[in-house]
Amino acid sequence: MSGFNVNIEALHQYSRKLASHKSAVNKVSGLVDQSDVGDESWGVVGWFVKQSYTDMLGELKDLMTEMENGLQSASDKISAAAKHYQEAEDGYQSELKRIASEVEKTTVKTISS
C-alpha cells in the first residue's frame, strides 16, 4: 500500500520562517534608502553617473519589495496548505470514529439451523 505522510507542524514552522525573512529584506531596503546621497555629494564627475545610480537604487528597492511580497505570499500559501491538511486529517479522524462507533453498535447474532 502506498500513501503519504505530511508533517503539518513542519509546514507551520516553515511558513513562519519564510515570514520572518521579511525582516532581513526590510533591513536591506533600509540600507538602500541610506545609500542614496544628495546630488551635491557627487561633485562634477557625479553629474554623469548620479541618475544611473539613483535608477539602480530604485530598481533594487523595487526588487526588495517584490522579495518581501514573495516571502509573504509563499508563507501564506504554505500556511494554507497546512490548514487544509489539518482539516483533512481531522475529517478522516472524525469519520473513522463514526465508523468505529457504528461497528461497536453492531450486534452479531448466530443463526443455527
Structure characterization notes:
By secondary structure, this protein is mainly α. The chain has one domain. Helix content is 77%, strand content 0%. It contains three helices and no strands. The protein has helices at residues 8-34, 43-46, 50-105. Helix 1 (8-34) runs antiparallel to helix 3 (50-105). The longest helix has 56 residues, at 50-105. The protein starts with 7 loop residues before the first helix and ends in an 8-residue tail after the last helix. The mean pLDDT is 89.
Q: What fraction, in percent, of the residue positions are helical?
A: over 70%
Separate helix tally: 3
SSE order in H/E notation?
A: HHH
- Label the overall shape: rod-shaped
Uncertain runs are none
Specify Rg, calculated over alpha carbons.
29 Å
Distance between the termini: 41 Å
Strand content: under 5%
What's the rounded overall pLDDT mean?
Answer: 89
Biggest sheet layout: none
Number of strands: 0
Number of domains: 1
Alpha-beta content class: mainly alpha
What are its keywords?
single chain; 113 residues; mainly alpha; 77% helix
Helices and strands in order:
Blueprint: H1 8-34, H2 43-46, H3 50-105
Brief overview, please?
The protein has 113 residues and is mostly helical. The protein has helices at residues 8-34, 43-46, 50-105. This is Excreted virulence factor EspC, type VII ESX diderm.
